Each structure stands twice: as C-alpha cells, then as structure tokens.
C-alpha cells in the first residue's frame, strides 16, 4: 500500500509518501518564514502560504519517492485540530486529488499523528503511555490499542510548547523560542533559579501559566538591580525554565507509569525534540524498566511523515473516510 500524507494544520506545508513494504519514501516540509517578523503565526498569511506551496510540496514528495499519483492507493490528510483556513487548503487539495484520481481518503487527527510518528521506525507494544507535548496541546494518553485511547489528563491553560515560546520571548528569543531555549539551556544551570511548578495532586493535569507570571516578575525585579540581567544570564535562565517545564511532565509521566503499567512509553509532538525532556524521560524509563520510544528529531515537530504513517495504520484497519468529511479546528 502506498500512502500520500498531507499536513497543513499550522505553518508548515508538508507532504510525505509511506510504503507498507519499504517504509517512509519521502518527507518534504516547506516552512513559512513570513511569520517570523510577527513573533507568532498569522493565520491568514499561513493559509495563503499553504496555497502557494501545496502543489510543489506534494509534487516533490512524489518525485523523491520515485512514484506518481497513479501509484498512490490512499491520500491521508490532517483533519484537525489546527487553523481552519490552513487545514482547508490541505484538505481541499487532498480531496480534489483523491476524487480526480479515484483514490481512497483518510482524515487524520493531528494529535494522533504525533503519537503514531513513533511507528515510523518502531513497533511500540500496547498498552502504550504517550506524553504528547506540542505548541497547542499537552496530554497524557493511554493508548490501549491502535486508535483506542484514553485521555488521562491535559493542560488546564498553556501548552508546554506555548510556555517555551512565550517565556522564551520574555528572554529575548525569537519565535519559535522552544528550540532556541533548548540550545541555551544546554550551557546553563537548571538550578540557577527555582521557578514554581504546579503539581495539581490527584490528577494527570498540567498548568504552565503560573510559571509564565513567575518568570515575568522575576525578570522585572532583577532588572531593577541590573538592566542587563537577562542578557548576562540567558543560558542559566533558559536552563531553569526548561527545568520548571519538564519537571511536572516527568512527574506525571512517572505517576501514570506506576498506575497503568504500560508495556511501552512514547514521547510525541514538537516539545519531544527538547534535549532535557528526552534525557529525563530516558532516565525515568530506565529506572522503571519500561521501553521508551521517541520519534526521530525530524518527526517530532509538524511533518507529513506522521500523517502518512497514521493514514497507513488507519487504512490497514479499513478506517476510510467519505468525501463529505469536514475539517475541525479544535479537539
Ligand atoms: O508539534 P509542533 O510542531 O506543532 C504543534 O502541533 O503545535 O510543536 C511546536 C512546538 C513549538 O511550541 C516549539 O517551540 C516547540 O514545539 N519545540 C520545542 C523544541 N522544538 C520544538 N520546545 C522545546 N525544545 C525544543 N527543542
Ligand atoms: Zn503538531
């Protein structure tokens, strides 16, 4: 089975081809630089940029996979959650392509796809415990079997990626600040400042908005004494913030491992690219003797390889969609 995956939920136009026999054949991403000057994604600009690059991105993914549209069996496309205008571009394109070339169509939940990105290179044994951490979501999910999953808890306010981006911005880092914060943190002391961490006992929920306020006030107070405080201590501040974001993620992951005794643990989503989180998860899972899978760094942030593999897994279970399926902005 040959699956063409298309992703356009936010600010990456992406297409990939997955073969049931040979695995991933191509993975093309066109990133949109137009948002950098605004410090965040501007939805209308994102939709227009998707429209400009969708055709060439899909063509390139087919060329790199050494195949044509005729060879494709299934078109898989992100159905949501995401920016509605952006979703519509990939969605309409996928529908048009599938309809005109008589292909099967599969709608893919973007958050599921982050989880199933782990299936590109591995076969995690069920039940799987997933810590899904992205720019818009932070969720602990018990995946009992393919597409049979239970949400254990999620964030009450900001997502972990959002916390990295917003706090990084306060520390003078450009959008998206997460990867930049990661680089600085690697040279810093995570104990430089002990920022408060929300524990929310008795739940698998998270909260990061208090941390944002704590960092804001900390910077404000320190700058009164030393106007160059942030510039002079950026590495240490980034390490301390990374510590405060990853600590509750690992704590709840540990509690869930103890309660649900999964056969494997996976990290998923853009923040699973974070060095500190990956290291802490490795240490924890070694201690708890449970296999840990983390997507290859190129499948952590938004990509179409994860859409293609999820499309393949759905198609292999006969989970196809009608042409009247609609995109959705929120979970
Ligand atoms: O999964 P993703 O690409 O898009 C969404 O579905 O939201 O996640 C993007 C998020 C952004 O907030 C970005 O700053 C964060 O993932 N991110 C990171 C790292 N790489 C990406 N956060 C911390 N450390 C990283 N290395
Ligand atoms: Zn994503």
Question: Describe it for me?
Answer:
The protein has helices at residues 43-64, 84-100, 110-116, 160-170, 177-185, 209-225, 229-232, 234-260, 275-287, 305-316; strands spanning 2-7, 12-19, 23-31, 74-80, 104-109, 128-133, 138-145, 148-154, 264-268, 292-293. Helix 1 (43-64) runs parallel beside helix 2 (84-100), helix 3 (110-116) packs across helix 10 and helix 8 runs parallel beside helix 9. With 331 residues, it is of the alpha/beta class. Helix content is 42%, strand content 19%. A hairpin with a 4-residue loop joins strand 6 and strand 7 (138-145). The longest helix has 27 residues, at 234-260. The chain starts with a strand and ends in a 15-residue tail after the last helix. The model has no long low-confidence stretch (mean pLDDT 97). It binds 5'-O-[(R)-(carboxyoxy)(hydroxy)phosphoryl]adenosine and zinc ion. The site of zinc ion has 6 residues, from helix 3.
Outline of the structure:
The protein has 331 residues and is of the alpha/beta class. It contains 10 helices and 10 strands. The site of 5'-O-[(R)-(carboxyoxy)(hydroxy)phosphoryl]adenosine has 20 residues, from helix 4 and helix 5.
SSE series: EEEHEHEHEEEHHHHHEHEH
Major sheet description: 5 strands, mixed
The proportion of residues forming helix, as a percent range, comes to: 40-55%
Distinct bound molecules: 5'-O-[(R)-(carboxyoxy)(hydroxy)phosphoryl]adenosine, zinc ion
> What Rg, in angstroms, do the CA atoms define?
20 Å
Mean pLDDT metric: 97
* Unreliable runs: none
| Helix/sheet category | alpha/beta
Instruction: Please give the count of helices.
Output: 10
Strand content: 15-25%
Quantity of strands, as a count = 10
Spatially, the strands of the biggest sheet line up as 3-2-1-4-5
Cα(first) to Cα(last) distance is 29 Å
